[in-house]
Design brief:
The structure is a single chain. By secondary structure, the chain is an alpha+beta fold. The chain folds into three domains: about 180 residues, 3-Layer(aba) Sandwich (Rossmann fold); about 120 residues, Sandwich (Immunoglobulin-like), CATH 2.60.40; about 130 residues, Jelly Rolls (Sandwich), CATH 2.60.120. The chain is built from ten helices and 31 strands. The strands form seven sheets. Strands 1-2-3-6-4-9-10-11-12 form a nine-stranded mixed β-sheet, sandwiched between helices. Strands 15, 16, 19, 20 and 21 form a five-stranded antiparallel β-sheet that branches. A four-stranded antiparallel β-sheet has the order 13-14-18-17, with no helix packed on it. A hairpin with a 2-residue loop joins β17 and β18. The longest helix is centred in the first third of the chain and has 17 residues.
Length: about 575
C-alpha cells in the first residue's frame, strides 16, 4: 500500500491564507501539497500555531473527527504549553477567527463561487475524494476499497479508501512540521478524535517519525469488512500490529466507535512497550477534562520530558473467595498523590449485544490495605459474564489547560489513569463458586455520598446528571410501578426528568422542604407529543434544568423545549425508587 511513497519527496508548496497573532502565539491558516493525483494537485488546508520566538519545539499533528473542523483552539492552547501544532482539515472545514469554513462554505469552494462573500479557499482533494460529512461524491464510502471515478486506482485497492488519503495527508503534515525552523523534527506526535483517532493509529503505524500517539474514541474497533482486501490493509489491527511508539488510548467505556472490549485486543496487538489507557465509565464519544488531559500529559512526558506519569495500575480480579463474592486488588503507582481508587463493573459488556453505549457500570470504591487497594463486587446473578476495571484519580503538580475532543478549552488539577479491563464468563463464575448475594433493588438511587459515580455528565460545571441504571436488570421497574423521589430547591424552578427520547417538566415551589415527585409513564412525552407507554426497555434516565427533545418525521424536524435556566443553589435529591 505504501510501496514507493516517500512523504518527504514532493515539495510542500505551502501557501498562507490568513495569519495573525494571539496571546503570544503566531497562527496561520495555510495549505500544503498532499500530492498529485491523476494530474491534479491535492492541497490540504490546516491551522498552524507556534509560540512566538521559541525554538527547538516538539511538533504535533492534530486530526479532527467526522463532522468536526480543524480548529485554531488546539494549536493555540498547545502553543501556550510549548508546542508547534498543525491541525489538518481533511474534510475541508476550518474554525478560525475571520476564517470560518462550514459545510456550506465547503460547497461554495467546490462550486468555485469565488464572488460569494463567504467564499474561502480550503482543502482541495482534486481528482480524488477524501472529504467526509459530506463527501464530494455522494457514493464515496470510507470503508470501501472499490474503484470509482474519484479513486486513485481503477481496480480494488486500499489506496482507493479515503482512510488511506487522509493518512497520507497526515504523514505529509509530519513533513511540514519537520521543515519548520522552530520545530525539532525528532520530537513529533500525533493525536485525533473519533475518525481522527483511526487516522492517528494509521499514521503512527505507518510512519516511524511519530514518537508519541494519543488516539481518542477510535483506532481500535474497525476490524471487520465485507472486503478481505480492506481487512488486510485498512483495518485497525493491521496498523496496531505495526505500531511501536509510546501510545495513550483515550477510550470512554461506553463509546460506540472505539469500544472498550476492542481496547483489550489493541493492547495485545501493539508493539509499544510504553502505553497507558484512560476509560471514563458511562461516557460515549465525549469526556471531561480529567480524562481528555491525558494526551497533553503524554506528550509532555514523551516529547518534552517534563512530566512523569504513573505506570498503568495493576488489576487482579479474584473469583474464588471465602464469601462467594468476587473481589479485586488494584495496585496503583503512587508516584503522584492518589485522590481515589474506584472499581467499575458491568454485566452488559457483550460486544455483540448492542448495549455498548448504554451499559451500566456499577461503582465500588476501593479501600487501601497492606496488599493494595481492594474492593468486593457483589453480584445479583451468576448467569451473565462479568467485566471490571479500575480508575485511579491523581492530583497533578499544577493545573493543565487544554482543548478537548471538541476543542472545549478547560483546566484540570486531576487526571485519571485506568487499568486493563478483565472479563470472566458465566462458566468461570460457576466454576469458581461465585454466589448471587445482591438481590435486585427497588431503590434506584439513594443520593448518598459518591452517588455521582454511577451517573455521568459532560458538563460538570452544571448540576444535571444522567444514568444507565434503569437499563440494568438489577434496577428493573416492576409492572405497574411509579418512579418516586423527593427534591429540594431553594428557589422556584422547573425540574426536567428525561427518559430516552421522552421527558417531563416538574414545577418546584422552592423553599427548605423536600418536595415529593411521583411519576408514571404517561407523564412523559416525546418531541411529537406521544406518551410513554411503559418503563420496560428504557436505557437512560436524566435529571436536569433544561432539555431539548428532537424528532425527524418525513424529513421535518420537531423540537420540544423543556425547563429554563436554573435559579439559585443547586437542588438536593432524596431516595429515588420504584413504587407500586
Amino acid at each position: 500500500m505504501w510501496d514507493g511513497f516517500d512523504p518527504r519527496a514532493e515539495p510542500l508548496e505551502v501557501e498562507v491564507l490568513r495569519e495573525w497573532e494571539e496571546d503570544g502565539v503566531s497562527l496561520k491558516v495555510l495549505r500544503y501539497r498532499v500530492g498529485v493525483f491523476h494530474g491534479k494537485t491535492a492541497m490540504m488546508a490546516a491551522v498552524y500555531g507556534v509560540p512566538i520566538g521559541q525554538q527547538n519545539l516538539p511538533g504535533l499533528v492534530q486530526i479532527h473527527g467526522g463532522g468536526q473542523y480543524a480548529d485554531f483552539k488546539a494549536p493555540l492552547t498547545n502553543a501556550k504549553r510549548g508546542y508547534a501544532t498543525i491541525s489538518i482539515a481533511w474534510a475541508g472545514r476550518i474554525a478560525a477567527p475571520d476564517y470560518l469554513v462550514n459545510p456550506a462554505v465547503v460547497k461554495l469552494f467546490w462550486d468555485n463561487k469565488t464572488e460569494h462573500p463567504q467564499y474561502r479557499v480550503t482543502t482541495e482533494w482534486g481528482h480524488v475524494d477524501g472529504y467526509h460529512a459530506p463527501s464530494r461524491n455522494p457514493g464515496n464510502q470510507f470503508p470501501s476499497v472499490a474503484p470509482a471515478v474519484w479513486t486513485l486506482d481503477p481496480v480494488p485497492s486500499p489506496r482507493n479508501s479515503p482512510w488511506f488519503l487522509c493518512t497520507l495527508a497526515a504523514r505529509r503534515a509530519l513533513t511540514f512540521l519537520e521543515q519548520q525552523q522552530e520545530v525539532d523534527g525528532s520530537r513529533l506526535g500525533v493525536y485525533g478524535h473519533s475518525m481522527g483517532g483511526k487516522i492517528t493509529v494509521m499514521t503512527a503505524g505507518s510512519d516511524d517519525r511519530v514518537k508519541a500517539a494519543a488516539p481518542s474514541c477510535g483506532g481500535i474497533s474497525d476490524r471487520s469488512n465485507a472486503s478481505t482486501l480492506y481487512e488486510d490493509t485498512i483495518a485497525d489491527d493491521v496498523f496496531l500490529t505495526r505500531l511501536s511508539c509510546p501510545i495513550f488510548f483515550l477510550s470512554p467505556a461506553n463509546d460506540f466507535h472505539g469500544r472498550i472490549n476492542d481496547l483489550q485486543l489493541a493492547l495485545d496487538e501493539i508493539k509499544s512497550v510504553d502505553w497507558r489507557v484512560t476509560c471514563a465509565p458511562h461516557h460515549n464519544h465525549q469526556d471531561t477534562a480529567e480524562y481528555e488531559v491525558a494526551s497533553q500529559l503524554w506528550f509532555d512526558q514523551i516529547l518534552k520530558g517534563t512530566c512523569h506519569l504513573p505506570k498503568t495500575p495493576g488489576f487482579l480480579l479474584q473469583l474464588e473467595t471465602a464469601t462467594g463474592i468476587p473481589a479485586c486488588v488494584v495496585q496503583p503507582d503512587a508516584s503522584l498523590p492518589i485522590q481515589s481508587v474506584d472499581v467499575f463493573f458491568t454485566r452488559q459488556g457483550d460486544p455483540t449485544g448492542g448495549d455498548a453505549i448504554n451499559r451500566f457500570w456499577h461503582h465500588v470504591p476501593a479501600t487501601e490495605t497492606d496488599h493494595g487497594w481492594t474492593a468486593n463486587l457483589p453480584l445479583s446473578d451468576v448467569d451473565r459474564p462479568l467485566w471490571a476495571y479500575a480508575n485511579v484519580r491523581y492530583d497533578l503538580p499544577k493545573p493543565v489547560t487544554s482543548a478537548g475532543y471538541y476543542y472545549r478549552v478547560s483546566t484540570t488539577k486531576q487526571f485519571v489513569l485506568s487499568s486493563r479491563m478483565e472479563m470472566r464468563s458465566a462458566n468461570d463464575l460457576a466454576t469458581a463458586g461465585v454466589q448471587a448475594t445482591r438481590p435486585p433493588s427497588l431503590v434506584v438511587e439513594t443520593f448518598g455520598p459518591g452517588w455521582e459515580h454511577e451517573w455521568f455528565t459532560y458538563r460538570p460545571e452544571k448540576w444535571g446528571r444522567s444514568t444507565h441504571k434503569i437499563y440494568d436488570r438489577f434496577y428493573k421497574a416492576p409492572t405497574d410501578s411509579r418512579l418516586a423521589f423527593s427534591v429540594q430547591s431553594a428557589s422556584p424552578n422547573k425540574l426536567v426528568v428525561g427518559l430516552d427520547a421522552y421527558a417531563t417538566e416538574i414545577a418546584l415551589t422552592g423553599g427548605p422542604a423536600f418536595q415529593p415527585v411521583i411519576l408514571s409513564p404517561e407523564d412523559f412525552q416525546n418531541a411529537q407529543g406521544d406518551t410513554l407507554n411503559t418503563w420496560q426497555g428504557l436505557k437512560e434516565l436524566r435529571l436536569g434544568e433544561q432539555e431539548t427533545l428532537k424528532a425527524t418525521v418525513n424529513g421535518k424536524q420537531t423540537r420540544k423545549e423543556l425547563g429554563t435556566a436554573w435559579q439559585g443553589d443547586e437542588p438536593a435529591f432524596s431516595t429515588m425508587r420504584w413504587e407500586r
